[in-house]
Design a protein that fits this description.
heterotrimer, A mainly alpha, B alpha/beta, C alpha+beta, B: alpha/beta, GMP Synthetase, Chain A, domain 3, 2 domains, nine-stranded mixed beta sheet, 13 strands, globular, C: alpha+beta, five-stranded antiparallel beta sheet, membrane (chain C), transmembrane (chain C), UPF0353/GerABKA_families (chain C), transmembrane helix (chain C)
Chain lengths: ~350, ~350, ~475
């Protein structure tokens, strides 16, 4: 067991607040388009399938971690030796970097489209990454604190109330009017939304009594499923399926219905509040990358951190437009799919075999 | 120290990064009118607001029009005539001339929908005649015309007198299958602007107009309402008016024959408001109910027949049938629609007669 | 090796040092003291009187004759030196005798206990700490007359030699906090300690933060309440303020009057205070953001009001806001530096005359004037003065951020502040507790002020050794109807 001082660990229940924002990235804003295009009013069904699979994957993650009592960095090196394990760790670093680059660039794009059309990419990226430095250098507990803060973002779901006069319940029927193939495709599209659990593999040793935290992780998935369900239902009720593909971020378009006595537009409030959603992911991925580097090459996390941030800064500035952002998205969704639904089950089976061998030996 | 310097310099660098749109240094417009111009061009009229210092009540406006190909290009050109740059974000009412509407609106809608600053709750309307002419008329007794029109639509949709139709709803019924859009129709009447009915669209083209009474019936047939007064003729020169305290409508589909038929079931609850000839309406509730029922039923069926004849479906019957049918196809529905059997069942309950018997 | 005569010679350099030679038949007595520090009454009636009655006695025999409780015989030269400088009288028999009697004749001049001036309450006691450490300890001891109240004294400051007292409840307060306090106090390298705020800055976890990490109070009830809950309380001789620690951000929002009012009223007051702080920090920044970038967000009904109040103002919103905010700060500062009666006049002249004139001269919009005045007032609802300073200052970064990137700037600034708060600790305790780390039992006394009968536990985040305050079962027994 990796020895992490108790002062730096967090209580198991905080894992709920950590896993939830991990799943709840900015891709949430457009997650309802493709499933509804494919499965129409039945999009909730693939969502349930997907949630079920996510629960199983989460169970596998905990089985692997609990039986080894170590984080994935060490498991890799134990299972595959120094070189192959190290290579796998490096793949994870690349993946994490890409995820945070994607999140930051997507956020900047939203700002550029919704609020400041003439805003340059680099100043925002600079400020966001500077803030990330401040957060990550505060340590794991501060990062989890930021995750908890981002939980406040859920308040914006209340804005859905303003769309009530425009809902059409006709859009929910007829039920089950799609073929099996449509469901499978929609399930695959939705699996992208459950990406983010893999971070748990790297912060396992920072949880106080980690076995107890599985309950909280599963609850985080359940809460996310509920949020996805709300989002899909409201998209169905509010828009015609023909209308939806023309939107880029239907979740943000919903803010266009909000009205208060003083303030008539809510888009600029809602879309800049998305900033809360990017920090948990960006912080945790830079932190995990730093951890990996630390345990592999024994470099200080504090020295690696600016290096990663500068790398990310350059990369973010190099992504010019919508099309290239979508390019990154397909790349991430492919890698994420492989990691979550192929690699983790594989690791689980490998681990089970190893455990059996050890027991008989 | 070094770090502080870095922060300060980056702050300075950042200041110049975004374009400011200081509210009182830009020109706003709340209403714009789009009309057809010769050679397939477009005439855009904007009601640019003028504020007076220290007096929120006196907002006036000035109308600028220009002809061009795209409305955003025209708006940009108008900046040449203005001291303060135009900030288009506040647009709340868009009026279309009747000719423009008849030529199709989807191109103009795209501009409005694409812009992130515009609200989806913006009101759209068709003007009987030229929209520019209507705006130039003096109808608001000094009040800013954009605000006036916005409030006109806002109060009337809130009161439930006309079916509400904003940008989102228009797009919804335009893009959606088995449903056609409609917009309120504005007209100058004796120097005042009034909503005189509804302009019904087939796809994005204006087709036919219905009057206020039909518009109200349409409202009843579309969704629940809680307001509105109905008049009914009882006999020779005797009229009763009923206050609608809550009407419910639901559609039902019957698929027993080869073609489906639709039944619309309308239940109205009301109170007697005004009884001109009948002294004791309490005793004649039955008769009043019957006569109102008959009245609404005939005009309702008339309206539905008109819609079928014109092959337009603002009620969304097609959408309703889709939600009850597996593998619904739009083409088949369109063929069937003119001969669709629609039945209308009206029930009226009068609950109170005011404080008098 | 220095001797007693050398001390006499060194101290004689100051003209207020007196070294009397009291001739006897054998060797003379030397009596040294600072006349600026000693009480002449004690000197004359207790010391001189007993000397002149029995002039021939040796030193050890003289000792019991001096009728003063605080006295000792010492040959420790540095102690003699220090005590002389604190107002003791040293008596030596014969110039080369190594021993001295040290008699306490300290002349302590301190003002009387008065009503609190900064943390004024309508309800509750009107008793505030004074500059004398002994009086302050007396006030605390009177409120907590049990043996568990422990006081540790340390001398801090190479020049001022200030007495610092650390009070805590034995068996309640976590030892870790007491030890941290003592250790940090002992490590202080500073010459002059004029006030407790200097100590505060020297022992805080992060001295670069504008947020106070210790809570200064002049109220005796607040200090004793904090001690009972398990906080450490520090006093410094010469400062009328006690310092409580560890504290969380929430403690700065609680006024002790909350506990004196019925709990529902107390909770509402607390909520009003929190809302007013949020308003105070964000109001003018949001004004800048909306008018500069998000003008289309204002509703149609409200639009003419705002624009017509601002259309003649020549400045951009941020300049306008900065001018107004700075002039409010100026008024406040001027009012604070002047005697209270003139201060009031300044308030009237500044507030009413300047404000009206500024609007009439179209230098500012009256809408902004309302916002700025309200947010200035809101910042004064903070019950702890240190925090209301923070609230006033922290507005400016928000205003500048709003100018740069509108609402996004405000969000970024807010996240930076929250990250800072997440990183802060007070004596090692997280500053945002009980919100983060979330302690649901600790949430009890933050946003609302619960009824006192529900206060049977000490706040868990203070990690007290004895978390129960009183027996809950005993306190609240539910009765049936008509029983």
């Amino acid at each position: 067991m990796n020895s992490v001082h108790e002062r730096y660990t967090v209580s198991p229940y905080l894992i709920f607040f950590m896993v939830q924002p991990m799943l709840f990235g900015l891709e949430f804003l457009s997650m309802s388009i493709k499933p509804i295009q494919l499965a129409g009013q039945d999009a909730w069904f693939p969502l349930f399938i997907c949630a079920f699979i996510a629960h199983i994957v989460m169970y596998m993650i905990y089985q692997i971690l609990n039986q080894n009592q170590a984080d994935l960095i060490q498991i890799h090196q134990q299972f595959f030796g120094k070189w192959v394990g190290g290579g796998l760790n490096m793949i994870f670093i690349t993946y994490f970097m890409l995820v945070s680059i994607y999140q930051i660039r997507l956020f900047i794009e939203i700002i550029q489209v919704w609020i400041f059309p003439d805003l340059e990419t680099w100043p925002v990226a600079l400020v966001l990454l500077a803030l990330t430095y401040y957060m990550v250098s505060g340590g794991f507990r501060v990062i989890v604190g930021i995750c908890m803060l981002s939980f406040l973002n859920q308040i914006f779901f209340l804005s859905m109330f303003f769309t009530f006069p425009y809902l059409h319940f006709n859009n929910l029927t007829p039920i089950m009017d799609h073929s099996l193939m449509d469901f499978i495709k929609a399930t695959k599209e939705l699996s992208f939304s459950y990406r983010g659990m893999e971070f748990l593999l790297f912060c396992y040793t920072f949880i106080k009594a980690p076995q107890k935290s599985q309950k909280w992780s599963q609850w985080a998935i359940i809460s996310m499923t509920i949020l996805y369900l709300v989002e899909i239902f409201f998209s169905l009720l509010l828009f015609k399926p023909e209308q939806l593909p023309t939107e880029i971020w239907p979740a943000l378009s919903k803010y266009k219905f909000v009205q208060f006595p003083f303030i008539e537009r809510f888009e600029f409030i809602g879309s800049s509040a998305m900033i809360l959603r990017i920090f948990p992911i960006v912080c945790l991925s830079t932190w995990s990358s730093g951890r990996i580097m630390k345990s592999m090459f024994s470099v200080k996390q504090r020295t690696m951190l600016p290096f990663f941030l500068v790398l990310m800064f350059i990369a973010v500035c190099c992504v010019p437009n919508r099309k290239s952002i979508e390019g990154i998205q397909t790349w991430i969704s492919m890698t994420g799919f492989c990691i979550l639904y192929v690699y983790i089950p594989f690791l689980y089976i490998l681990n089970a075999i190893k455990m059996k061998v050890r027991r008989t030996a | 120290m070094k770090r502080l310097l870095l922060v300060l310099t980056s702050c300075l660098l950042l200041t110049a990064c975004t374009k400011q749109q200081i509210l009182d240094r830009s020109t706003l417009f709340l209403v714009s009118a789009l009309d057809n111009a010769p050679n397939g061009q477009l005439e855009v009229t904007l009601g640019l607001t003028k504020f007076k210092a220290g007096d929120p009540g006196s907002v006036s406006d000035e109308f600028f029009s220009k002809v061009g190909h795209t409305s955003s290009g025209i708006t940009d050109l108008m900046n040449m005539q203005l001291v303060r740059p135009i900030n288009p974000g506040k647009l709340s009412v868009v009026l279309f001339g009747k000719d423009k509407a008849a030529h199709g609106l989807s191109q103009e809608l795209d501009v409005i929908l694409r812009n992130a600053q515009y609200s989806r709750r913006m009101y759209l309307a068709v003007v009987d005649g030229e929209a520019k002419k209507l705006l130039e008329g003096n109808f608001s007794s000094g009040e800013e015309k954009g605000l006036f029109l916005y409030n006109l639509f806002d109060t009337n949709t809130r009161k439930g007198l006309i079916p509400s139709r904003n940008l989102h709803q228009f797009e919804y019924s335009l893009v959606g299958k088995g449903i056609d859009p409609f917009l309120p129709l504005l007209k100058m009447q004796n120097g005042k602007v009034a909503i005189t009915g509804m302009a019904l669209f087939k796809d994005d083209r204006y087709v036919v107009t219905i009057n206020e009474k039909q518009a109200r019936i349409m409202k009843l047939l579309m969704n629940q309402t809680k307001r509105g007064i109905f008049e009914a003729k009882l006999g020779e020169g005797s009229y009763v008016s009923i206050d609608n305290t809550g009407s419910k409508v639901n559609y039902r589909i019957y698929k027993n024959s080869r073609y489906p038929s639709v039944m619309i079931n309308l239940v109205i609850e009301g109170k007697v408001r005004d009884s001109r000839e009948v002294t004791y309406p309490n005793q004649e509730l039955r008769r009043i109910e019957e006569s109102i029922k008959k009245d609404i039923r005939t005009s309702g069926l008339e309206l539905i027949n008109l819609l079928k004849e014109k092959e337009i479906d603002p009620l969304g019957l097609g959408d309703f049938v889709r939600s009850k049918t597996r593998n619904w196809s739009e083409e088949a529905w369109k063929e069937m629609y003119p001969s669709l059997n629609v039945r209308l069942l009206v029930t009226v309950h009068l609950t109170e007669t005011g404080v008098k018997k | 090796m220095i001797t007693v005569p050398q001390i006499w010679n060194e101290l004689k350099e100051s003209s207020d040092f007196v070294c009397l030679q009291f001739e006897t038949q054998t060797e003379p007595y030397f009596i040294g003291y600072f006349k600026s520090l000693t009480d002449p009454e004690v000197l004359d009636q207790r010391i001189m009187a007993s000397l002149s009655m029995e002039p021939e006695t040796p030193l050890d025999d003289l000792y019991p004759l001096i009728r003063v409780a605080d006295k000792e015989i010492s040959s420790d030269l540095s102690q003699i030196h220090n005590k002389l400088l604190r107002g003791y009288v040293a008596i030596q028999h014969g110039l080369h005798h190594p021993k001295c009697i040290l008699v306490n004749a300290v002349l302590s001049k301190s003002r009387d206990v008065t009503i609190p001036e900064i943390e004024f309450n309508v309800e509750g006691s009107k008793e505030a700490f004074v500059e004398s450490l002994d009086t302050n300890l007396n006030l605390i001891r009177k409120r907590i007359p049990i043996s568990a109240l422990r006081v540790k004294e340390i001398i801090v400051g190479s020049v001022s030699k200030s007495r610092v007292a650390i009070c805590y409840m034995d068996g309640v307060t976590n030892d870790q906090y007491v030890n941290t306090c003592i250790q940090r106090l002992e490590n202080i390298q500073f010459d002059m300690i004029p006030d407790i705020t200097v100590i505060q800055q020297l022992i805080e976890d992060n001295s670069n933060s504008i947020f106070p990490q210790m809570l200064g109070t002049e109220r005796t009830d607040r200090a004793s309440w904090g001690l009972t809950l398990g906080q450490v309380c520090i006093f410094v001789d010469g400062s009328p303020t006690a310092m409580l620690g560890p504290v969380s951000l929430g403690s700065f929002f609680t006024s002790y009057e909350d506990y004196f009012l019925p709990w529902i009223i107390g909770s509402i007051m607390r909520l009003i205070r929190i809302i007013s702080v949020v308003f105070s920090v964000f109001a003018s920044a949001i004004y800048v953001a909306i008018l500069t970038y998000h003008g289309h967000g204002i509703s149609n009904i409200f639009l003419p009001t705002i624009i017509s109040s601002r259309i003649d103002v020549p400045f951009s919103p941020v300049i306008e806001v900065l001018i107004m905010e700075l002039s409010i700060e100026l008024l406040r500062e001027a009012g604070a530096r002047l005697p209270s009666k003139i201060g009031q006049t300044i308030g009237i002249v500044g507030g009413i005359v300047l404000g009206t004139a500024a609007v009439q001269a179209a230098l500012t919009s009256n809408f902004l004037l309302i916002i700025v005045a309200l947010s200035a007032m809101a910042s004064f609802t903070m019950p702890v003065f240190q925090m209301s300073n923070v609230i006033r200052i922290i507005r400016f970064p928000f205003i500048i951020a709003a100018q740069i990137w509108g609402l996004l700037g405000i969000y970024i600034c807010a996240i930076a502040v929250i990250t800072h708060l997440l990183r802060l600790t007070s004596l090692g305790m997280p500053y945002l507790v009980p919100f983060y780390p979330l302690r649901h039992k600790g949430l009890f006394d933050t946003l609302i002020r619960p009824p006192l009968s529900k206060f049977y536990q000490r706040p868990g985040f203070l990690r007290t050794k004895h978390p129960i305050r009183f027996d809950k079962k005993h306190a609240s027994k539910k009765k049936d109807i008509d029983e």
